[in-house]
Amino acid sequence: MRWKRVAAVAAGVGLLTSPMWGPPSLRPLRFFAVRRVEVSGARYLDPGVVVEGMGMRRDASVWDDLDEVEGRLVNVAGIREARISRRLPGTLRVAVVEREPVALADGPAGLVAVDEAGRPLPYDLSSAPVDAPVVPRSDTLLLAALATMRTTDLEFYAGVAAATARGGDVVLEFDAGRVRLDLPVDPAAVRRVATVRRYLSSRGVDWRELDGRFGSWVVVRRARETVAPALAPAVPRRRAPARARGGARA
Asked: Which domains does the chain carry?
């Protein structure tokens, strides 16, 4: 009868949600053993590294304490956040948020991806290439500057091939030339220089250096320059049309 099926479903729900007869009583059942782990969000880390970081027993159950497993995952280098959900009867879904690399720094065995705090990230650059500027060392002030550029103007940041800190400045190497900014980097200065760079590129103007250390102005030093450098406003202005001599005709 229909009422019997409803009662059976209600009993099943009560069993799963009851603190006394729910998950603790279901863990030993082989029916709920973990047979599959689905990993999402891993762009740089191998999914096998994520599964290993979960630290689960061979007889793990989907009813194990997932908060504890999440806690182990966030201690894995390269993982910032982790969320685990169940798909009965035997699957765990793991969603991770990786730590974003902001630069590639020299390490003992070659280039190493690092985050904005200077932490080395265990990313295999041969299997998961990291597109980030190269820096000579993990200078936290320089890395923080690159992180500011990435959040302020991703296109500008993506064009940086290498970066160095010199005194109180940061020097950025682009394919077209060099950019100088004050440290710490002001997001407004990044926007000004990025605007001028796009403006010059759209008009096919070659440049060798953009200097954003002069308030609301950007100094443009052109390629093969033979005259004094030009000052470009942060927002390029259009020229007003020239008036005809003698005034307008009737």
From this structure: 16-98 (3.10.20.310), 133-233 (no CATH)
- The residues near 133 (Cβ < 8 Å, ≥ 6 apart) are 102, 103, 104, 146, 157, 160, 161, 162, 163, 172
Q: Which two tokens stand for residue 222?
A: 């052109």
With b for 16 or more beta-carbon neighbours within 10 A and e for fewer, the 198-213 pattern comes to ebbeeeeeebebbbbb
Read off the pLDDT band of 7 (50, 70, 90): very low
More confident residue, 26 or 50: 50
Alpha-carbon span 169 to 197, nearest angstrom: 19
Q: Which residues partner with 211 through β-bridges?
A: 180, 219
| 58: number of Cβ within 10 Å | 6
Q: What is the pLDDT of residues 78-122, one digit of tens each?
A: 999 999 999 999 999 999 999 999 999 988 878 999 999 999 999
Instruction: For residue range 116-158, list pLDDT tens digits in order.
Output: 999 999 999 988 889 999 999 889 999 999 999 999 999 999 9
